[in-house]
Amino acid sequence: MENVVWLIPALPLTGFVLLLLFGKRMGEPAAGWVGTLMVGSSFVVSAVVFFWLRDQPEQTHTHSLFEWIPAGSFRVDVGYLLDPLSMAMVLFVTGVASLIHLYSIGYMHGDPRYPKFFLYLNLFVFSMLLLVLGDNLLLTFVGWEGVGACSYFLVSFWFEKETNAVAGKKAFITNRVGDWGFMVGTFATFFALGSITYEVFLPQASGLAQTAATFIVLMLFIGAIGKSAQIPLFIWLPDAMAGPTPVSALIHAATMVTAGVYLLCRISPMIVASYDWVPTLIAWIGVLTALLAAFIATSQYDIKRVLAYSTISQLGYMFLAVGVGAYWAAIFHMITHAFFKALLFLGAGSVIHGMHDEQDMRWMGALRKLMPITAAAFIVGALAISGVPPFSGFWSKDEILTYALQQNPALYAVGLFAALLTAYYMSREVFMVFYGDAKWSESLEAEEAARERAAAQAGGVESAEAAEATVEAEPAHSRFPKGFRPHESPWTMTVPLVVLAVLAATAGLLNLPFPDSWHFLEHWLEPSFALSDQAHLDYSDLTIVLLLVASTVVALIGITIGWLTFERRRLPVIEPEPLQDALYIDSSIAAFMGGPGTDLAEGAATVDAVGIDGTLNGVGRLTRWTAARVRVVQNGYVRVYALMVGAGSVLLVAFVLTRVLMWR
Amino acid sequence: MRNLDLAYLALGAVLFSIGAFGVLYRRNSLVMIMCIELMLNAVNLTFVSFGSMLDDTAGQVIVFFVLVVAAAEVVVGLGLVVSVTRRKPTASADDITVLRG
Fold first, then answer.
1. Interface confidence (ipTM) of the complex
2. B31 CB within 8 Å of a chain A CB
3. Domain residue spans of chain A
4. Predicted confidence (pLDDT) per residue in B5-47, tens digit
5. CB of B83 within 8 Å of any CB in chain A?
6. Per CATH, the architecture of B3-95 is what?
C-alpha cells in the first residue's frame, strides 16, 4: 500500500501534463472532466491510503523516491513523509479540491480559456500536495513556490482587466516577502542541524541552542505570515478575489493559505525548543489578525471581500491555536474551515453566477426564493463559521478558545470578541444577499414606472421630475439588463454545494469535546505531535460546558445584532469609512511603495548599476584596455616570434649564468 | 681536450647560427623549415661532440630522440606548408598572419 502514495501528487500532475499537451483539443467540457477526474482519483487513492494507515502499528512512513541533490554533506531526496498530519491535510485538500473542480466545470462554462483554467487548477493541487507530502523543507518550498506561482496565474486569470493583473502581481510579490523568510529559515536549519529532512532534524531540535531555534522559527514564521495572510502581510488576500470564484475557494479553503499553518505545525518541535516568547508572539499575531480582519469584514460591500477578510480572521484563529500549543486544534479548525469556507465561496460564486457577475451586496437581496439550494447551503456555511452549534465551526473554534483561555485570558477575550464580530458580519452578508428587498428588481421596476410616467406626461409640467427619476434609476438600468432575473445554478455547481454543506454541518463529529474517546482527530494526530509538547486541557467537564454555552451565546448575540440591523432595521448600520477602506493599511502601504519605496528601490537599482555593475564592467574594460596595448606584440610574423624566442632564451641563459657565477 | 673536438663544437655553433639566421631572415616557409632542421642537426652534432668528449653515451642517445622528434615535426610542418601552398601558391611566411592579435 505504501508504494501507491506517490500516486496522490502524481495524478494531478498527470492531469496537468495531459491538459498542457491536449487541453485545447479536448475543449469544453472534456478538459474540465479530465482535471476533475484526476483530482478525484487522487482523493480516492488518499482515502485508500488513509484506511491502510489507520490499521498500521507505526503511523509515520517516509520513503525516498529518488536522489535529487547530492552535494557533499548537503543531501536532498525527493521523498514523502506520510504521517497522520500530512494524511489529514492530503485528505481534505484532495477532497475539497475535487468538489471545487466539479463546480468549476459549471462555473467556467463558456470561458475562452476553459482548458487552461483546469490546467492551472491541477498544477495548483499538485503543488499543494507536494508541499504537504514532501519529506524535507526544500521539497515543501518547491510546493510552496508552486502554489504561489499558480495563485498568480489564477488570480490574474482574466488578465484582460488591468485590476486583475495587478491583483495577481500583488499576491505574488507579497508572498515573495514571506518566501524570503522561508529560505533563510531553511538555510539556518541546515547550518544549525546539518539536514533539512524533517525526520532527521526535528528530533534533534531539542538539542539546539535556544537562540538558533528562535531564529529558525521566526524566519519560517515570516514565511507562514506571508502565505497565510497574517498581519502585516495580509494585504494580498482580499485582492486575490479578482480571480474566478472557484480559485478563491481553492486558495482560501483547501490550499495555499493553510500552508503557513501546516508549516508551523510541522516544525512544532522547533517552536518548543525556542524561547518562551515565540509562541506568545505567534498567538498574539494570530488573535490580533483575527480581530482586525473581522472588524474590516463588517464594512465591506463586495460579497467575496467579506469572505476574504473572514478567511484572514479564521487563519488568525489557527495561528492562535499554534501559539497556545494546541496544534491539533489548529488542524481541526483548518479542516472545518476548509469545508465551510469552500462552501461559502462556492455559494458566493453561485450567487455571482446567478446575478450575472454582480458582486456588490447592495444590489442583491431576497435571493433565497430564486436560488433555494444556494441559499440553504450558504446559510449552513454562515452558521458554521459563526460558531452556532451543532455546526462544525462551533466545535473547532471553541477548542481553540478554550486552549487560549488556559494560556492567557486576554487572548480568550480578544478571540471571543472576534467571534462576535464574525457572527455579526456573516449574518449581515446573509441578510443582505438572501433576505430583505430585491434591490435588483426594485430598481428595475422604479425605472420602468418612471419611464411610463414620462411617456404619459410627455411635455407636461412634471416632465422635469420624471426625467429626474429616470436619471436616478440610470445606474440600475446600466447594471442589469431589462427583465433580469437571477437564476439557480446548474447541477455541477449545486452538487458540490450540497456535499460541502453536509460536511460543514457535520465535521464537528471529528472531534467532540467529550467524552475523551470522541477526540478522534486529536488521537489521530497525536503521533505527529509527539515531540511538540502539546498543551493539555486541565478544565473540568463543567467548565468546558460553560465555555461552550458562552461561545453559543456570543454567536447568537452577533447574529441577533445582524438580524436587528439588516433585517429589522432597528439598529443603525455601522459601516465607517476607515473600515470600508481596510483601515487604510493597504492604501498606505501602496502609497509608501509608490512614493518613498520607489525612490528606495531606484536608489538600490542605482547602487547596483553604478557600484556593482560598474566594478564588474570596470574589470572587463581594464582587461580590454591592457589587451589592446599588448596585442601589438602578436603581429603574426613568424620571424618576430622566432626572434622573441631566441632573445628570450639568450636572456634566460644569461640570467642562469650570472646566478651560477655569483653563487660561486 | 683535443682540437678536433673544439672544431666540431665550432661547426655546430656555426650551423646553428646559420639556421637561426635563416629562420629569421627568409620568407619562404619551406626554407624556414629547412633552417629549423639545420638548427636541430647542429644541436645533434654538439651533443655527439660532447658525448665523445666526456666519454658518455647519453649524448648519442639523446640524438636519437631528437631525430625522432624532428621527423614528426617535419611531417606536421610539411603538411602545413603543402596546405598553405594549395590555398595561396605564392604565399610567403609573412602572408600567413591569421593569428595576429
1. 0.79
2. no
3. 634-664
4. 889 999 999 999 999 999 888 888 888 889 999 999 999 999 9
5. no
6. Orthogonal Bundle (1.10)
